[in-house]
Known about the structure:
With 345 residues, the protein is mainly alpha-helical. The longest helix has 30 residues, at 164-193. β6 and β7 (319-322) form a beta hairpin. The chain has a domain at 281-342. It is built from 13 helices and seven strands. The radius of gyration is 26 Å and the shape is elongated. The mean pLDDT is 88.
Amino acid sequence: MPSTGVKSAWISGLAASGAVCAGIAIGSRGFAHFDPELIFYAIGSVLTAFAVAFRFTTWSQRPPTRIYLRRGIELLFKGGLRRPAAVATIATADKYVAQNFIRRRSGYRWIMHLCLSGGCTLAFALTFPLVFGWIHFSPLAGDPEIYQVNLFGFAVDRFHIHGLKGALMFNLLNIAAVIVLVGLVMAAIRRVTDAGERATQKFFEDILPLLLIFAVTATGLALTVSYKFLNGAGHHLWVVVHLFSVLALLFYIPFGKLFHMFQRVCSLCVALYKRAGENGPRAFCARCGEDFTSAMHVKDMKGVLDELGFNYRFATPTGEVHYQDICPACRRRLVALNQGASLGR
């Protein structure tokens, strides 16, 4: 990577980690609501933010990724797309929330991914604000059985500890853990019984993330079992094991398969790109004259190939033609014709 790319990656990493530190300081009201017992979780979050931003910056500087991200931002904020906000919202709901691209492949995999992504998202959405001190609970003055929910130091809700809302508030993480466990069991069954998965799966990319998620989920549930049913027996041990399992998962995210959570931003840009291409100028095959894709896509592909050092231009009796100016069907025909010519047919 060029030195400028490394420099920008370092700047992005430092900015992300600095933003997390500032968020903790501001959101916890100058650390007034920050729990010192959670300092290692906070440090792990800061380091993970740096690593995620660093890798995302290096990944986004690759020519194909950069062109999709740049086009997506241009279409979303600079025009070129009808109702861009609506298109972006629909694409986000389709690709991030509903994950219909998986449902179209397999209903089993779809339910499995919904359990894993939904449960983990719920757990992260609860854990980080609690660790950072953005959310804290305090008993109401005069009635210790009424708890007040404070967000960034402001009271936003209250509930009775023996009521339904109280039970839900205190067990949301356990609910998320159970949802994740369902997804993990389904994933384990699939990886054991599916011959295709067994043949292609790799430990670091496919097995390790499941083991790390299981370790975090199981040890988190063990903490609940310890203080609710075992009178705190083994609680300190589970606290330590849970801490190390969480840190291991956080440090794995920027370097393993789970980094695709951040790479999916590009899929949103691709959706905007495709929608703009459908409504914009079209590209016609230089050989057969058929409409086969958007002119914007052909132009961008030529630029990416040139940037990567690939020369796909060739001379014809009518002038120079780029390989991207030819539709896929004609490309296959040209391969067959050239192979035949090389054999003297």
